[in-house]
Amino acid sequence: MRVFCLSRTSLDRRFIQGKRYKRKDVFYQLGGLSCSPCLYYTGKTCKIYQKGAFPMTHSRFNSFFSRILFARNIFVAALLLAASPAYSENDNVFERTLANGLKVVVKEDRRAPVATQMVWYRIGSVDEIDGSSGLAHTLEHMMFKGTPKIGAGEFSRLVAAAGGRDNAFTSRDYTAYFQQIPKEKLGEMMALESDRMGHLSVAPEEFAQEIKVVMEERRMRTDDNPQALLFEQTNAVAFQTHPYRRPVIGWMDDLMHMTYDDAKAWHTTWYAPNNAILVVSGDVEHEAVFRLAERHYGSMKVQKLPVRRMQAEPTQRGIRRLVVKGPAELPLLLMAWKTPKIERIGDGEPVDPYALDMLAAILDGHAAARLPQRLVRERKIAANVGASYDNLGRGPALFYFYGSPLPGYTPEALEQAMREEIADIAEHGVSEDELKRAKAQLIAGRVYARDSVFGQAMEIGSMEVLGFSHQAIGAIIKRLEEVSADDIRAAARKWFEDDALTVGVLEPISLAKASARNN
């Protein structure tokens, strides 16, 4: 499932104490990213952090794929948070839609005198077309470059002067901006955010400089990172027509040919109140927030949005394989199966997306899960292994297995071992103890999510921007709790055939050889 980092302890309370936290320039989330001036939270709250999740620029294997697994666990933790006494699905959550189509959702939480404002746009890399990849992310950069009222770089300076922090992130499905501020500064933040929604004014020379930053970002995070490059290439092979095949940061050739007019047109086309959701959480009163929203956003005009014509992915009819060569100490194996996602939430919906989510937790949801226990500790085939599944999104879902074989073993041997694990579940199922442990692990995550005003805004926004009401959170939790061992066994039998599989392998080469190839 889709989630974002939440703080290990309350970001809000540490923030109000006046401490500063260093920004990271990384945010990958199954292809999504955030970059300078975007934020990457290092305070991960689940076992993935303990496994070694860290920014993409780090050379270790888990720096990349643990964030894929992280996407499932934290989101489920946030969902389970909604079932807790501190935050039921409708507890202190209020919503209103302005006349111009802007949906405003307010979550009242009075534990600390802070507030979070988030503006989510229903626009991501999935909405780009061939030849324009990277536009959504590049425009995110440009949103910090000024309006007729404030100059380049002034936005973040004004937020900081108000005692706050701000950032943004881009994914395949959406783009979002946020500020964490003392509650009395909420009106000022709305004035700033609405100003750049409607009046972004970037000089061509600013664009020319910033696109170079984006290209360097791509070199650092993908071109010079073999693990990330493997994921990008495997994704491009797994999807042949669907826009998910394109990387969020964009192909380098598209970035090199992107123009100032391209970025300006992207903002003019998509940055409108009827294509956005405003989420406010914290020590606020909802009626006061609605009045502020009306004052600052209400005068913005409705904009006619283009018809979105997303290409459907044709049925895959056989296994696909690829090899990526790059400087690395160990090979890396990535297996990706096309699987179903949540299409709707309610009575009669298929159980498979929920069963697959629990299967991922059983395989790699805790320290004693099947894959690390059997392949790393018992059989000693792999240095690290994992599994991940994301069942919420605008496009198709993939179920991942990944790992690095130890010296003396090949990627082919690890692939066979992973196949044996899924075949064992398909034949014999999982024990009730395994299922209970996996569910308990996910439920435990709510302890961390409960403590963050920012996390609550993330939860609400990430549901709403994908077309699901935040009120449906309870139904998702209920379906997860109802998943049985038989459901998991049936899903393992149904969805792991070779015809839906793409296999990528990172083949290690020396740094000298890699450098020679790049020159």
Describe the SSE topology.
Elements: H1 11-16, H2 47-51, H3 62-82, E1 93-97, E2 103-108, E3 114-121, H4 135-142, H5 154-161, E4 165-170, E5 175-182, H6 186-199, H7 204-223, H8 226-238, H9 252-257, H10 260-270, E6 276-282, H11 286-297, E7 320-327, E8 332-339, H12 352-364, H13 370-378, E9 382-389, E10 397-405, H14 411-428, H15 432-444, H16 446-449, H17 453-464, H18 473-482, H19 485-494, E11 501-509, H20 511-518
Give an overview in words.
The chain has helices at 11-16, 47-51, 62-82, 135-142, 154-161, 186-199, 204-223, 226-238, 252-257, 260-270, 286-297, 352-364, 370-378, 411-428, 432-444, 446-449, 453-464, 473-482, 485-494, 511-518, and strands at residues 93-97, 103-108, 114-121, 165-170, 175-182, 276-282, 320-327, 332-339, 382-389, 397-405, 501-509. With 519 residues, the chain is of the alpha+beta class. It has a six-stranded mixed beta sheet, with helices on both faces. Strands 7-11-8-10-9 form a five-stranded mixed beta sheet, sandwiched between helices. Helix 4 (135-142) packs across helix 10 (260-270) and helix 12 (352-364) packs across helix 19. The longest helix has 21 residues, at 62-82. Residues 1-32, 34-74 and 81-87 have low confidence and may be disordered.
